[in-house]
Amino acid sequence: KIGKVRTADTYRNALGSFEHFLNNRADILLEELDSNLMISYESWLKGTGICPNTSSYYMRNLRAIYNRAVEQGLVAQQNPFKHVYTGIDKTKKRAVSLDVIREIRDLNLAKKSQTFARDIFLFSFYTRGMSFVDMCYLNKESLQGNYLRYKRQKTGQELQIRIEKDLRVLIDRYASPLSDYLLPMLRNGDRYQDYRRRQRRLNKLIRELGDRLQLDMPLTFYVARHYPHLSGSHRH
Fold first, then answer.
1. How many CA atoms lie within 13 A of 21 on its CB side?
2. Rounded distance, CA 201 to CA 225, Å?
3. Is the pLDDT of residue 230 over 50?
4. Residue whose C-alpha is closest to residue 232's, from 129, 122, 155
5. Beta-ladder partners of 160
6. Phi/psi class of residue 179: alpha, beta or left (left: φ > 0; alpha: ψ in -120 to 50)?
7. Quick check: pTM over 0.85?
8. What are phi and psi of 149, to 5 degrees?
């Protein structure tokens, strides 16, 4: 209700995982959230094959929810998360070679949906790693001469990117006089949930393109955001 939609969404995801672990049993009391239960939950998460960082993601969000309950006097602090992992491991950056980027660019695609997914992937690459949510919410006021100027949705940081030839082609291809947005990913008045649905759909199409190229790693928008040469870009 106060506008923190992303936070609410992460809490909802964490609770969904925990409910799945509880196997749809009836609601449990806050007092039942003790160290032994959370250790069992962590073991269950490991058994599903997820990585430690994902397990920690769920634990940190559940801990935040639990601490809010403690602050409101709904339960006495029992430190149920003291014996489970809540840190963040460093992970190897996932990136592909420039030759693979060229292969993706030059793919002959029959379906418009695949072409659009490929173009949005390249848009992120050409903008030196613009996030999916920032691409969604780019408006026409962001286009200022030879530059894109925008604020990151996540941090509010102001960024400026010089528009090179390949990026200009994509901007001209998808700009529409009927939309306030620079790219046709959202409709005027769409909500946060609409952006998430579009993100899931395009990620699925991008993975299929990676499978077609027989890459040895899943192709996602994350790959476009972490290309090794990004640090030497015109992004300020």
1. 22
2. 18
3. no
4. 129
5. 149
6. beta
7. no
8. -120, 130
